[in-house]
Design goal:
By secondary structure, the chain is α/β, with parallel strands linked by helices. It is built from six helices and eleven strands. It has a single domain, classed as 3-Layer(aba) Sandwich (Rossmann fold). Helix 1 packs across helix 6. The radius of gyration is 15 Å and the shape is globular. The termini are far apart.
Length: 192
């Protein structure tokens, strides 16, 4: 099972790093499950994320192994992708081969722009719900994440961690997801 996490300039750090933490903990803690997780970008040049973190993708889209699951983060970097024919084609090509296309935050806007969410329930960051609806999705404003079979959308930032744990449960078992959650000590209790 190959899980690709998209990286691009302006990607919100926790939108990709949260799912990465969950999925890499699964890969490393239970190697017999046969999971690989890697990051993918358009180039091998450093990516500058939304808050300034600089990272290097493991692969480019041209060299990456075929992905069974794709995770597309949100962030201000998604806005220039809307209406970009090359990005639409990239997403459509990935969706044609992947079992699951997952998004975090405004990554769902990119999926909607590519036609993956037309007439489907979906969610995103609360500040972009109207735009998601304009792009053809049936917005679920109260959902942490929405599983529509081959497409899963998650609301902002921390919902991506919840969605990644849900992916572990869906792809393996609730028991494995609970083990992964415990291994990363994910016990959210916000102080405010």
């Amino acid at each position: 099972m190959n899980i690709a996490i998209a990286l691009f300039d302006g990607a919100e750090e926790l939108d990709w790093a949260g799912p990465w933490e969950v999925l890499a903990a699964w890969r490393d803690g239970w190697p017999d499950d046969g999971v690989d997780v890697f990051t993918v970008g358009w180039t091998r040049e450093p990516v500058v994320c939304a808050k300034g973190l600089r990272v290097l993708a493991d692969h480019t889209w041209d060299t990456a192994p075929a992905a069974d699951v794709v995770v597309w983060p949100g962030g201000r970097g998604t806005r220039p992708m809307l209406g970009d024919v090359a990005v639409r084609k990239q997403v459509q090509d990935l969706a044609a081969r992947a079992e699951i296309m997952a998004s975090v935050c405004t990554g769902s806007l990119v999926y909607a722009d590519a036609g993956l969410l037309t007439g489907r329930r979906a969610t995103t960051h609360w500040g972009s719900l109207d735009l998601l609806a304009e792009l053809g999705a049936e917005v679920d404003p109260d959902a942490r994440f929405v599983d529509h079979g081959d497409v899963i959308t998650a609301a902002g930032v921390s919902a991506g961690i919840d969605m990644a744990l849900y992916l572990v449960a869906r792809l393996h078992s609730r028991e494995r997801a609970a083990e992964v959650r415990r291994s990363i000590q994910y016990d959210p209790e916000p102080p405010v």
